[in-house]
Recover the amino acids of this structure.
């Protein structure tokens, strides 16, 4: 069942086109993450779903109802902001109660509801404090609590964890995930952090300059990026790119990438390959592994730099005039300058047209 | 010597101005306090020590009572009118209206004028044979009367209106800056929560402006105690002494009635009033910073 439908949505500020013909359908219970670099229009799209910004053209439906011209308060949504946006002059309890009181719910019903959600978020001992007496993580819990008590049809999150330190961010991330698993409420979550996007999303939407690049399950977007932008934006360290040309040789397609010839027999082309087509072949660092024998495709390359990250060794390898990175297990640490044999996982290759930058 | 200079260069650089402040501010405050214990007439004379007699006399002078009461009456009304209307105007301008800078300039314009000019302008406007009253009569409402300047019971309103006209711009600017400093997301959260704008102002935004209120009250209070030129230009204390303020009383005693001792006593009482406002303010301010 479709819960949110965004149709042909455009938004301009003067001559600046911030959103360009956005179309998106969200099923009930999905956790959609909008991911993209700063300034690509994620917050604007979220504000439009919330009704805080007006569309230039297009339509928004929530729960089967056209809400394009409906006030935020009547859209049955709740929102969590990066700056927490708590009401500083009120106690935590009042912050959580205020929205319901405005809706005319009797206090005798609100009280137990607020206490239940506060217990759920482990902030029940903070109910009588002011926001200024709380830490960043506690403030964000209160902001989430304020959204929870409203029991909305849709949760909207605008970079809720960006103001927290790394450790707190990770633990809050898991908590948000658990909350979604418990409540099953439809959610749209904006972030520029790919780790948050990969871990939280049931489906993610990658955006660039006001346009949707790709919509899909996190592993699908990660392993089968539709273009060079998405391939490059996801992954840390980023995907290896090898420039070259396609060659069709007696029914076999291969890619000549300078120092090597990569067979593409197993590659599922989306568009028919052409002989001599300029391409970029992409392979993630974890698909470049030390060879153990028996692999379909191996190369012998010289390491120029190694880095320990704790969980892996990142090995920079010279390949022709370019460099590629392999993510090796910690027990394998090649010596600099001594050639190592590495295998490429050909099943994980991505091939892009060099001109259109699209996956082929 | 050089080591000493190197280490204390900032203190050395500041010392001339500190010395000047010590002499001309605190020195003369002490001097005034000393004069207030003498029976000085046209010139200060220290051979006529009378203790606190001048204070006793001051508080038995009916004119001082009028002036001192007026200060609180004028001050209270002025604070109330200026703060409430200044805040309302700031909120109206904060609605992202068109031609915002135009309206802002209009409200701020009177600030550029001295109190003497303000006083004269309002003397004309409130003059029954020249100003607003004549204008309204010409519109056909011949029973309209505006006799604030000539009626001892209402003359205080003339002072309040003129002082408001001058002070409103500053108050509006301070409140507007405060309003603009409030996180946009709070407004968005309130919109999603379904809180009507006026409730957001009453319950959330205006309480958040508490520090601005404090600053405004202190600034205006000091201008109330200092108010002198406005009264001289607008009413000159009249009719009779009905619009007298302590500053006018002090000036009159010192330079027209040659009663320097009494004048000095009134000055010390005014200083006490200022300190009564400032000390709690500084206390709150420094405690918040700490
Ligand atoms: N009120 C506004 N007026 C003009 N431009 C705006 C406004 N809000 C956002 N923008 C512009 O729209 C673009 C997208 O902004 P935003 O949606 O906040 O990006 P993101 O959340 O992805 O970082 C940016 O280039 C920003 O400068
Ligand atoms: Mg944003």
């Amino acid at each position: 069942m479709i819960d949110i439908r965004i149709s042909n949505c455009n938004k301009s500020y003067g001559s600046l086109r911030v959103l360009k013909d956005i179309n998106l359908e969200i099923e009930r219970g999905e956790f959609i993450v909008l991911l993209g670099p700063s300034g690509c229009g994620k917050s604007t799209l979220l504000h439009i779903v919330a009704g805080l910004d007006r569309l230039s053209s297009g339509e928004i439906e929530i729960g089967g109802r056209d809400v394009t011209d409906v006030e935020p308060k009547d859209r049955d949504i709740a929102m969590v902001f990066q700056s927490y946006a708590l009401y500083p002059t009120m106690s935590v309890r009042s912050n959580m109660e205020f929205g319901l009181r405005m809706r005319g719910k009797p206090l005798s019903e609100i009280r137990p509801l607020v206490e239940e959600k506060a217990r759920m978020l482990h902030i029940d001992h903070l109910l009588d404090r002011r926001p200024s007496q709380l830490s960043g993580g506690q403030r964000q819990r209160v902001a989430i609590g304020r959204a929870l008590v409203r029991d909305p049809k849709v949760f909207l999150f605008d970079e809720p964890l960006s103001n927290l330190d790394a450790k707190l961010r990770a633990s809050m991330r898991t908590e948000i995930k658990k909350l979604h698993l418990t409540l099953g409420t439809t959610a749209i979550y904006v972030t520029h952090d790919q780790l948050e996007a990969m871990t939280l999303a049931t489906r993610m939407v990658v955006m660039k300059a006001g346009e949707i690049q790709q919509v899909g399950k996190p592993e699908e977007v990660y392993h089968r990026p539709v273009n060079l932008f998405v391939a490059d934006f996801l992954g840390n360290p980023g995907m290896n790119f090898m420039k070259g040309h396609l060659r069709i040789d007696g029914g076999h397609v291969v890619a000549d990438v300078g120092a090597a010839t990569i067979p593409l027999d197993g590659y599922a082309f989306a568009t028919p390959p052409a002989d001599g087509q300029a391409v970029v072949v992409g392979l993630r660092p974890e698909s470049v592994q030390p060879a153990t024998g028996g692999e379909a495709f191996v190369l012998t390359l010289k390491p120029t730099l190694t880095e320990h990250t704790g969980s892996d060794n990142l090995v920079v390898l010279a390949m022709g005039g370019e460099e590629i990175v392999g993510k090796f297990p910690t027990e394998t640490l090649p010596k600099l300058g001594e050639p190592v044999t590495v295998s490429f996982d050909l099943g994980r290759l991505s091939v892009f047209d060099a001109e259109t930058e699209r996956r082929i | 010597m050089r080591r000493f200079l190197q280490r204390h260069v900032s203190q050395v650089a500041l010392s001339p101005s500190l010395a000047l402040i010590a002499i001309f501010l605190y020195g003369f405050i002490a001097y005034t306090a000393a004069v207030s214990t003498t029976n000085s007439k046209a010139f200060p004379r220290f051979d006529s020590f009378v203790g606190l007699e001048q204070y006793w006399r001051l508080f038995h002078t009916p004119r001082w009572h009028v002036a001192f009461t007026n200060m609180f009456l004028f001050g209270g009304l002025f604070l109330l009118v200026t703060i409430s209307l200044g805040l309302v105007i700031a909120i109206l301008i904060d609605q992202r209206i068109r031609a915002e800078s135009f309206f802002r300039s209009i409200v701020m314009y009177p600030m550029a004028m001295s109190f003497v000019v303000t006083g004269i302008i309002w003397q004309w406007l409130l003059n029954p044979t020249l100003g607003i009253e004549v204008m309204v009569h010409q519109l056909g409402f011949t029973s309209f009367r505006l006799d604030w300047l000539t009626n001892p019971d209402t003359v205080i309103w003339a002072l309040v209106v003129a002082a408001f006209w001058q002070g409103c711009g500053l108050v509006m600017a301070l409140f507007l800056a405060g309003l603009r400093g409030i996180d946009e997301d709070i407004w968005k959260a309130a919109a999603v929560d379904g809180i009507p704008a006026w409730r957001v102002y009453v319950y959330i935004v205006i309480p958040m402006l508490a520090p601005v209120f404090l600053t405004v009250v202190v600034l205006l209070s000091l201008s109330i105690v200092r108010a002198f030129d406005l009264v001289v230009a607008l009413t000159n204390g009249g009719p009779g002494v009905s619009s007298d303020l302590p500053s006018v009383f002090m000036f009159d005693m010192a330079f027209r009635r040659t009663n320097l001792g009494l004048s000095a006593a009134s000055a010390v009482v005014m200083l006490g009033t200022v300190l009564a406002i400032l000390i709690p303010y500084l206390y709150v301010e420094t405690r918040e910073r700490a």
In short: Residues 311 and 344 of chain A are 20 Å apart (CA to CA). Chain A touches chain B through 27 residues (CB under 8 Å). The mean pLDDT of chain A is 93.
